[in-house]
Each structure stands twice: as C-alpha cells, then as structure tokens.
Amino acid sequence: YAMLLSLIFLIVLVAAVVGFVFRHEIKTNFESNLNLALRDYNVTADRHSEAVDTIQRTLHCCGVQNYSDWERTEYFTQRGIPQSCCKRQDDCLEEDLKNPSKAKLKVFVDGCFFLVTSLMESQMSVVAGISFGIACFQLIGIILACCLSQYITNNQYEMV
Description:
Elements: H1 2-21, H2 23-39, H3 47-59, H4 74-79, H5 94-98, H6 100-106, H7 112-154
C-alpha cells in the first residue's frame, strides 16, 4: 500500500513540475488554438465555436488580442462580429457588427487571451494549495503504512 501511494505521489509531483516548466508552451498553444477557433468559427454548433462563444460571454471579451481579430476571419465577411461579443444583446444589430467602427462601441474591446491566462494564473494558488494538501495526506498515508508494516513484522503473529 505504501508503494502504491508513493507511486501516485511521484506521478503527481512529476505532473506538477512538468506543468510549471512548460507553462509558457501551454500559453502559446492556447493562443494558437484560440486563433484557429476564430478562423474556423461558424454558426453551426460545433464544439470550438461554442467554446469561443462561452469564453467571450463569460469573460466579457472579444477576439484573441482584441475585437479587431474578427476582421481577419471568413465569418466577419459574412456576418460581422459574433453576437457573443456584444455588451448588450438587444443593442447589437448585424449591420453594426459588420462595421468595425460602429462595432467598437457595442462589443467588448479586450481580447480573451490575456483574460483567460490571467484568470488561470490567479487560480493557480488555489490549485497549488489543494495539491499540497493532497500530497500531505499521501505522505501521512505512506508513513502510517510503513509503520503498520514495521509493527506487523516486529510482532510475528502465529498463523492460525
């Protein structure tokens, strides 16, 4: 049992170190995937488009770096900036969303990449605290399992 807990502890420790070391690659990967999701954005309900809409509505942001990222997409040429970027849903008309100067007044201007990464970084202390707590319980379990093993070995019980 102690060996199993030790193995799990080591796996969690390695995962934490890898996550810390490669955090910049994770950011770069997220940014490129968000750019791809914007490029391939469409009105049909696919997972990537729904994810972009959810991020934009929840975090009150638009595009990757800012709202003008939508101008380089095929969706913009057809329908303008998506409704999920609108500050107020009842105030966004499709004609306004096709005109970048009018749209600037009606949509969120901040990009989603910075908001998502800053939100993740702000929550990292909570994740680190929970992980540390779990690691402490695992270490206590390892120590208690070793003590129990030692106690059983020292008191050779008779087999019945």
